[in-house]
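Researcher: For the annotation table, I need structure tokens for ABC transporter:TOBE. Please keep the output clean. Sequence:
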Amino acid sequence: MANLSIRNLQKGFDGHQIIKGIDLDVKDREFVVFVGPSGCGKSTLLRLIAGLEEVTSGTIELDGRDITQVTPAKRDLAMVFQTYALYPHMTVGKNLSFALDLAGGDKAEIKKKVDEAARILELGPLLERKPKQLSGGQRQRVAIGRAIVRNPKIFLFDEPLSNLDAALRVQTRLELSRLHKELQATMIYVTHDQVEAMTLADKVVVLNGGKVEQVGSPLELYHHPANLFVAGFLGTPKMGFLKGKISRVDSASCEVELDAGTRINLPVNATGQSVGAPVTLGIRPEHLNLAQNGDCQLQVIADVSERLGSDTYCHVRTHSGEPLTLRIRGDLASQYGETLNLHLDSAHCHLFDAQGLVIAKALQTAAA
């Protein structure tokens, strides 16, 4: 078992609060990803869990045991850093066994653990090589192997893929996902890369300014963002936003008059909102379509097209200057300066109030 509980965790440096009262639960065998922009506190939070930073206030419990003041070596956690931190004069095998050798473990048991880690990570043929003879991806696997041999309760990863090139990042990301399933381990992973967060995590924790913005499964956060920050942070290309104001409200829908010069009826529960209240409409590229048969809701000016083969991303702007991106078939493209007529899929639009909080969809409210 490896259940982690964090309560009202705070960390300050020189009078500045970096972590601001975080509450979080990590369940046994979960793959939890901390994601957010630079400076949001995600690596600091991981270091607090590892014991590499002192907690200002709050508690960290592992399986009901308070480890807030316990030294890193006695927390039964293993951390894999962004830099591989391998011993250059040692072979791969010695790098894997070093911590266990230092602890004075049984040599036969150590060899068994090293061989098992090498099998899992396909490092068998590399055990006699030195780090300088390895590729970046192989070095990262050795760093992960050093954590595996310790058989920790929780694995901690601090942006482990950021030093790899694009192809290796994809390959190693798949290997980490497979590793999690094979070990059935609890893992906490820090990244600024939302693709890693979406593809690896059972649970995503979105951080901003030292606070948790939202916690949930990747698809829950993608389809049901709690606020403007989460909506704009998750998704590539990002969600487009249109400013407007409420022009009509009833129990199951509201009409929004957009600054871009059109009105749209949305199935949201806006009964707490007043006519004239400022709102922001959010829509993802896959829910913007080229208008057919006179169903135009929005006219835009084409800017740049990115042709990716299977899809084309058309970057456009409204007459009020707001940028949007739409995803269309790969065999289509727009011309710079061309006027395009768009249809917005109202069922997939998100509406946010003046404070940036989501206004719940009527169907969600009814289901609750």
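Researcher: And a one-line annotation?
Model: The longest strand covers residues 16-26.
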